[in-house]
Structure formats: structure tokens, C-alpha cells
Amino acid sequence: MWNKILRRSLLIIPQLLAFSLLVFALAQWMPGDPLTGRIIQGMDQGSMTATLGNPWYVRYLQWIGNMLNGDFGLSYTYLMPVEVLIGARLSNTLFLATVSLLLSYLIAVPLGIYAGRSNDSMGDKVIRLLNSISFALPIFIVALVLVWLFGFKLELFPTRGMPLLPESQSAIVSIWNRLYHVVLPALTFALSASAGNIQRLRSGIIEAKQEDYVLTARSKGVPESMVYRKHIFRKASMPVTSLFGYDITGFIGSSIFIEYIFSYPGIGRLFISSLESRDFSVIVVLLLTYGLAALVGTLVSDIILTIADPRVRMR
Predict the structure, then answer these.
(1) pLDDT band, residue 134 (cuts 50/70/90)
(2) What span, in angstroms and rounded, lies between the C-alpha atoms of 308 and 235?
(3) Which domains does the chain have, with CATH numbers?
(4) First-to-last CA distance in the chain?
(5) pLDDT of residue 309 exceeding 60
(6) Contact, 224 vs 291, CB < 8 A?
(7) What is the C-alpha to C-alpha distance for residues 254 and 145, in angstroms, rounded to an integer?
(8) Is 262 in contact with 185 (CB distance < 8 Å)?
(9) Which of 68, 92, 238, 263 is most buried, most CB within 10 Å of its CB?
């Protein structure tokens, strides 16, 4: 299995190169340029314009060569190296992703177990109704509802940004303030992402309850809690655990909307502002970052599924 994991990991490199060629070419063909109507102090604008005037494939080869040397280019909007600009915001997005994914599973697992064990009960019907609403609502609608309810009506959480904390503040206070500001963005993703896992877990439990080995265990007098823990839940949770990597990929697409609505200083909001200003260097690197995260998420899902079910073999 480890050989297959290594092979799949190495395949990410040519896939990422092919993706980089595509996004670089598309970025160069976008209308406009980052220098139109701008006077950049302290920089040779003539040389930059000449560089942008080269054919896109020449710039691509130059960019690949510089990237291999750790130089991802210069942001013409922020006037700083791209890797520094993205690195300053990447930690915020990773923090939001961690809290969002954790919160989505804290919501999905107990509700999915309850709905599966008590299927067709009143509680199950309420959960299915809420799930249907969650499936129907776009994520930006969920965000706006949460902002209106918890931000403006109840005034429980801030609706935008991140705190600017003094360096003298303790680590515990700093983490608490970050969590306080990330609650609404994380809850937005969690409510949207948990619906699918609730449905998968509920369906898996209902199906597993009818399996012959479960009926046999019950006939032998095995306690109900042990039947669910060792037989039913183990099988029913496989679709949920194996799709963890795809939840990461889902967060990638959702983070752009979430960060923009909540003015959250992550790479999603940076991506929108870079598109508006035609900052090609930042756009390409961010798209590569999203592509890499999607490829890694797919690989993680395949690894988890292979470990959870030995009958599945990674290709």
C-alpha cells in the first residue's frame, strides 16, 4: 500500500505542472493588466511593461524557473513578493479550515447517529427537514442569515475581520480572540457541509441494521450499545470518513465566498481582490495552491478508504 501511496504522491507533480500551464495561460489571456492607470513608486515600470509584453509561454518558462528557485514573482498590487503575501494569509485560511471541518463533524456525527438509530421518529423527520433546507440554500445565503441573526440581531459574534492583537497578549487570549472572530465563518461552512455527512451516516446506519451479522449478534444477546459500536457504526461511518479529503476540497471552493462575505483576511479574499486588480502573479499561485489542496484531499480520501476497508485497493 505504501508503494501505491508514494506513486500517487509523485503523480501530483506532473498533474500540478499541467494545471499550472493551464491557469498561467488563462491568466495571461484575461482582459486588462495590473499596470493600467497605475504609477508605481520606486519601480521601473518600463521594464515591468516589457516583461508583461513577452509571449505568455516565455513568461511561463521564466516563472517556472524562478519558482524552482523559491521566487514566485512580485505582486504588482501589493508591491511585495507573492510568497510573502500569500504566506501571511495562508495561516488564517488554515485556521478557518481546521475549525470549520471540526465543527462540521461535531454537528454531523451525533445528528446522523440519532437519525439512523431513531429513523422515522419525530426527531428524524426534523433532521431530514433541516437537511433538505441546508441542501437547497447556497452557502452565501447561509452566511447572510447567520450575519443577520448572530451578528446584528443578537450581537453575539463579530461579523467581519480578524482582531489586531498586541504582541504582549498571552497565547490563550490570542487563540480565544481568533476563535471568537472565526465562529460565524466556520459555522457557515459547517452547516452547509454537515448535511451530506448526516444523510450518508443516517442511510448507512439504517442499512447496516438490517445486515445478517447484526441480526445474529442481537439474537446471541450482545448488548445493543456494543452492536452499534462494533458492528453498525463501524460500517456506516466508512462513507463519511473516506470522504474527509473531499470535505477539504469543498472548503476550498467555499472559502472564497465565506472570506469575502465576512471580510476574513485569508487567501480566498485575496483571490477575489487579485482578480479585480488583474494581479496575475498572485492569481496563478493561488490557483496552484487550490489545485494542490484538491489533489492532496483526493489522495487523503483514498488512503482513509483503503485503511478503513482492506477490500478496497488504491489504484
Answers:
(1) confident
(2) 9
(3) 91-240+248-263 (1.10.3720.10)
(4) 10
(5) yes
(6) no
(7) 16
(8) yes
(9) 92
Is the Cβ–Cβ distance between 160 and 263 less than 8 Å? Answer: yes
DSSP string, the chain: -HHHHHHHHHHHHHHHHHHHHHHHHHHHTSSS-TTTT---TTS-HHHHHHHHTS-HHHHHHHHHHHHHTT---EETTTTEEHHHHHHHHHHHHHHHHHHHHHHHHHHHHHHHHHHHHTTTSHHHHHHHHHHHHHHHS-HHHHHHHHIIIIIIIS--S--S------TTS-HHHHHHHHHHHHHHHHHHHHHHHHHHHHHHHHHHHHHHTTSHHHHHHHHTT--HHHHIIIIIHHHHTHHHHHTHHHHHHHHHHHHHHHHHHTT--SHHHHHHHHHHHT-HHHHHHHHHHHHHHHHHHHHHHHHHHHHH-TT----
Q: What Å distances lie between residue 63 and 51, 185, 186, 280, CA to CA?
A: 11, 34, 35, 11
Q: Do residues 45 and 35 make contact, with C-beta atoms less than 8 angstroms apart?
A: yes
Amino acid making up residue 33: D
d(CA 315, CA 272): 36
The 10s digit of each residue's pLDDT in 46-67 is 444 445 556 767 778 887 888 8
